[in-house]
Structures are given as C-alpha cells and as structure tokens.
Design goal:
Layout lengths: L2 H11 L12 E4 L9 E4 L4 H10 L3 E4 L16 H7 L3 E4 L2 H5 L4 H8 L2 E6 L7 E9 L1 H12 L5 E3 L5 E10 L4 H7 L4 E6 L2 H10 L2 E4 L2 H5 L3 H10 L5 E2 L11
Parallel strand pairs: 2-3, 2-11, 3-4, 8-9, 9-10
Antiparallel strand pairs: 1-4, 5-6, 6-8, 7-10
Amino acid sequence: MRIKEILALLEEHCPTALAESWDNVGLLIGDGEAEVTGVELALDVTGRVIDSALSHGANLIVTHHPVIFGGLHRLEAGSLPHRLAAEGLSVISMHTNLDIAQGGVNDCLAAAVGLGQLAPFRPDGLGRIGRLARPLAPAAFASQVKTALGASGVRCALGQGSVERVALCSGAMDGGMVEEAQALGADALLTGECKYHEFLEAAHRGITLVAAGHFATEQVVLPALQKLLEEAGVERVFPSTQRDVEVFF
C-alpha cells in the first residue's frame, strides 16, 4: 500500500474540506508514491515518536497536530521537519478535520466520558453536546472525567446544579464557549485547556467547567485511528508511545 492510499483512506473519513481555513492538514512531509512499511500513530511528532517509528521500521507517522504549522521559513538541522526528511519519514496530519469528523476526536471523547444522544456543539460541527446516563454532582462528574481519560489531574469550576447535559470541545477551548454551552442548556462544559477568565465566567454563570488537559482529551482518538487503518487492511500499525508532557503534582 502506498502512502497516498493511506491519505485517501483518512480523507474519506475526515475530509480536508472540514478543516479550518488557518489549519495545515494532509501529507505534510514525504512522498505519496512511497510504499508503506509501517504506520506510527501519535498526537504529535516528537523525538520519541520518531525513534519509535524507526525502531518499528515504519516510514509513515500519522498525527493529529500538524508537524508544520504557520510559516516555515528555513529547514535547519536539529529541527523535527529536517530530521524527518533526513530519515526518509513521511507525516500525515489530520487536525481540525479530525476534530469535526464523525467518529473523530470529539466523538471519541464523548464516548470515553459516557455521553449519549450527541449533536454538534457549534454550527461548524466543532465539539459535541450530549447527555450522561444519569445526573452527577459537579465534583463527581469531574472525578469521572479524570478516571475515564486517565488524566494526571483536572482543573474545575464547580457549578451550582447537577450535571446531566454536557458540552465538550477537545484540546483548547475557544472564547465564548461557556456562554454558548449554557445557551444550549448544558450543565457542564468539558475541554482540554482554557484561560483563567473562562473559569471566572463559568463560576459567574453557575455552570461546571472541567479542563482535563490537552493531551488527555485528544489521545482518545488514537485507538479509533488504529482500528480504521487495520480494518482497511493496513499492516504494521503501531500505537503511540507519546507521553503527556503536562504533569500535575
């Protein structure tokens, strides 16, 4: 199987057209005509992920976060893009298109924390809103999220009522989401990371806000990607060896 065939398979499930205009997705490094010797899955390209790919004999890394983002003005020795090219490794990144796509990051996050009856949170398809099987106290919901995601810890603004209807957005939260979640009748908003003033806004509005870490809210998609590739007949798919760099003490 060629790298361009892997790209076509991924784009069938999370089309490039879904990606935000500022994003950078698709085959970012490498040769689409090359035969695939193995696929390494990770949220990010790191030195550890490159080492793992090489140890497995894999020449393709599939990530969520783009390895090239913004303007790349020079390719210097020591940089990750330079090392990837030098080692003959290709990279496919599926970012906001994987966030939005059915079965993508936000659907996997919703399933992990026990939400059902899902609908898009925002009109562009970003995020999800759904219901827990039973109402929980705010602290109990935060604890359930921490356990379900294997998060090192969670930051919370605990709301005034029980939590049943939950909005979520994996990774980093955009401004205005607390207000939007409450307007949709959500009792809680789950995300990866947010700013202090957003916790203040949640406290003011009496809505529970849980930030469980960027890595923890997005790594849930990797098993789904592995299953997709393996069911399509892709051999030698290796799950991520990446670890969260954010540690709670």
